[in-house]
Amino acid sequence: MRQPLIAGNWKMNATRTSAEALLSGVIAGASALSKTEIVVCPPFPFLSLGERLLSGTAVKLGAQNVCTKDAGAYTGEVSAAMLAEFGCRYVICGHSERREYYGETDAVIAEKLRACATQDMIPILCVGETLQQRQQELTEQVIAGQIDGVISQIGIEAFNQTVIAYEPVWAIGTGMTATPEQAQEVHAFIRQKIADRSQAIAEKIRILYGGSMKAANAPDLLSQHDIDGGLIGGASLIADDFLAICRAGDLVAS
Ligand code: PGA
Asked: What is the DSSP letter of 177?
């Protein structure tokens, strides 16, 4: 059985004060949970605060992005070594917002995964189709392309230390969640794609669902065979909402 993973993607939200309150709330509630791995990914300026507050707790720290380069003249960028130094264990890579607004290609995203590996951080590789692509029945083709685009650059072995998040673009921040059946279908497809290269990696890799996951729909989504957790945007900004999803993870793991 794969351990459920619930990761909060705060995106570009929070203030110093609200970040502290949110982290404290998550820490307090997480102490009652034992089966789900819990990760929070605040914006870069709050990583130091996160490292301090989360130290000695079971809640882990993640980042929302990383530079492909190790160091040097790359104004505005943050390296994998910097993230690791501030206690990050996970890094969200290739989120659809990064692909859409910042032009990240599969080749760039593959480099980000490579950068994470140099610091033993686990990338959360995001894949997913737009509404138009789904309507044109291109979902599997798009996702296969996104996964193959990374594997062709860095090899299947890198997926020993990678989490995949299936995030249908049409479900992100829209309140429109994929049904558990729709999500399971794509998750099974992703696992099969990995199995085509390595059965052992396919069996152990965790595939998260992301896109308007909330306390109300989390139990049904998380009880699907190939859904191993969630990447949570909006609902990760309120400690109780986020914790309710984490509790759903604990219940399915029991
Ligand atoms: P959402 O975002 O939960 O607000 O839909 C998920 C994500 O973008 O990771």
From this structure: P
